[in-house]
Amino acid sequence: MADYDVIVIGSGPGGYVCAIRCAQLGLKTACVEGRETLGGTCLNVGCIPSKALLHASHQLHEAQHNFGKMGLKGKSPSVDWDQMKAYKQDTIGQNTKGIEFLFKKNKIDWLKGWGSIPAAGQVKVGDDVHKAKNIVIATGSDVATLPGVEIDEEVIVSSTGALDLKKIPNDMVVIGAGVIGLELGSVYARLGSNVSVLEFAETVTPGQDAEVQRTFKKIMEKQGLSMTLGAAVQSAEVKNGKATVTYKLRSDDSTHDIKADTVLVATGRKPFVDGLGLDALGIALTDRGQVATDKRYATNVAGVYAIGDAIPGPMLAHKAEDEGMAVAEIIAGQAGHVNYDVIPGVIYTHPEVASVGKTEEDLKSDGRAYKAGKFSFMGNGRAKANFAADGFVKILADAETDRILGAHIIGPAAGDLIHEICVAMEFGAAAEDLARTCHAHPTYSEAVREAALACGDGPIHS
Ligand code: NAI
Q: Which of 132, 292, 415, 448 is the Cys-Cys partner for 4 at CB 3.0 to 4.6 Å?
């Protein structure tokens, strides 16, 4: 068997980016992947397919609600679900083949099969044992199950099953008002399902800026999602192809039932390290089952590293990618680094929700003096023209130094707008630096500048 400088186990955004960076740095690299296509959860059954369905269902919403207002008259489109799924599948194929091309271009060997680590310096795939000076565990995560709720991927589904339903359900229950629950819940609401969301916490998207949470909940309700907060799901039972979900309201302990054709379980994910042989190898895990690493992504076994959803931190494709680049650089003797203070989070609903850095709640609990500059998209000409004026940009800056500490956006293209603030934060910018930067008119980005102006003397258009 060939000897490698690096074998990366897992070809999701963390693994494949790591493999490409290793190859670029001159390391002889292989990547182990057991799926039939490269790209991991994100490309095959996560980020990419969900974005295709979000895009398609948003177009339908535009046709139904806004085309007429713009003078685009005619029969509203109807949904051909099989064609929509074929479009989604085609999008996946283009992306996964793209990674295969990049592997070939960078001379990375794809070791097909599920890998394990029988000993430091060895990776077993099928009957073959390959030697590697360095091994990177990039095996990602899997759906976290909920006691009393058994996923069958037919009636009770995870996000994977929800992307491939046989038909659009009449009634759908979503357990968890987190990222997956609201992205996929809003897809099916737009496609005509009655969507009921049951959330354990007293807010949607726990951990987000509270003002964003309140606005987000209202917007999702306006889009037809019914939200029950403070609801602890106890069980789900399937009879004759229909599910009954039982939940307890935390406020008064009362028990309720709700029926559905489809139940989406979206209550979080857990690291996926099954079958790697970590126990036998003596790799230390955290008490939450994540692979424990130091700041250089090294595990306690020499030459074995881990990145992405398998280690602590937000379970985000781009966090995994950054760690993949960093660990490749570290293995190559460079100073790889990830700035965990500037990792954006995006929810790809319409409108999008994006955040970076501290929330107001974080700053209050840190006792840090700050100012909040806020600007509503109602004051943005482009957003009004595009029927996208719901939401706002909020920038949080240090009260004394004006340095940007965080930003929270709910509104059109929020997931793109957030990045100018990320770059500003990477450079240690003040809100005034953003406010003094010329922003093209008419763009959504002007709302970012206006929020920065609101940290100082005030915005122009409100
Ligand atoms: P999540 O952690 O975002 O949300 C889970 C929700 O379920 C929470 O609000 C939690 O309070 C609730 N919950 C937990 N137990 C419950 C119960 N018994 N009854 C009712 N509610 C309950 O997890 P989600 O949405 O499953 O996503 C998994 C991971 O994938 C997350 O880390 C997320 O960041 C990531 N992801 C990111 C995306 C993005 O960046 N756009 C898209 C999809 C997933």
A: 132
